Amino acid sequence: MTGHMFDHAKEAFSFIESLDDLETPQDVIDVMDKSFALFGFENFIITGLPNPKERFEHVVLLKKWPDGWFETYSKNDYVRADPIIRLCRNTVNPFSWSEASYDRVGEPKAADVMDRATDFRMVKGFCLPIHGINGYEACLSMSGVDLDISSHTKPALHLMSMCAFERIRKLLSPSAFRGTNQLTLREREALVWAAAGKSAADTGAILGITERTVTAHIVSACQKLGPTNKTQAVARAIHI
């Protein structure tokens, strides 16, 4: 592992550890701003994905957007044409903005969204879709000009983003986290090794248990926490 790669991992876990001490949404914004800037990100937003009857500005949980962009985005109802939002609804995997395709000729408003965003230094981006088991849809989207997005940094950004979302949701809706079943030590260990990229077989060898047992621990943890994937389970496990 190179020093550069190690720094990304170190920053990710330092960021995650700091979240527990944050008491307000503004605290989360400040910490996100500092940590995500190391990857080149200048702006970010955590928002629900509005249904046809909802206004975009009513489902935003947290944002650090350039002055004027939020008003422009809301006024033009860009959320209905934004290719980033569209891809969020159709995938559970994190993606770079460049992966959100659209037809510049056939979808002029989609093109307008992306073109206008560049006026606010929102040239490139990374987005984490969030799909809850009860149908809730949200995302964390980050942007900037010169970004460090690679196969080495994406796992760190994924985990940091999910943990940030979980922390802000807990701050805004603490009652939703009451009565959560506690994880066992083995369940937490299995999730942490999964977040580090280890397979069930690798984790079994590390912990001295069978691959089947590791899988059972992960499944059990996911059933307790209700996440849609292992990374989200790790995010929740860290905060319990």
Automatic annotation (TrEMBL):
Q: Does the keyword Thylakoid apply?
A: no
* Any one Gene Ontology molecular-function term assigned to this protein's record: DNA binding
Where do the HTH luxR-type domain residues begin and end?
176-240
Q: Which UniProt keywords apply?
A: DNA-binding, Transcription, Transcription regulation
Concerning InterPro entries, the annotation shows:
Sig_transdc_resp-reg_C-effctor, TF_LuxR_autoind-bd_dom, TF_LuxR_autoind-bd_dom_sf, Tscrpt_reg_LuxR_C, WH-like_DNA-bd_sf
Biological process annotations from GO: regulation of DNA-templated transcription
Name the UniProt record assigns to this protein: Transcriptional activator protein BjaR1
Q: Which organism is it from?
A: Microvirga aerophila
Gene giving rise to this polypeptide: bjaR1_2
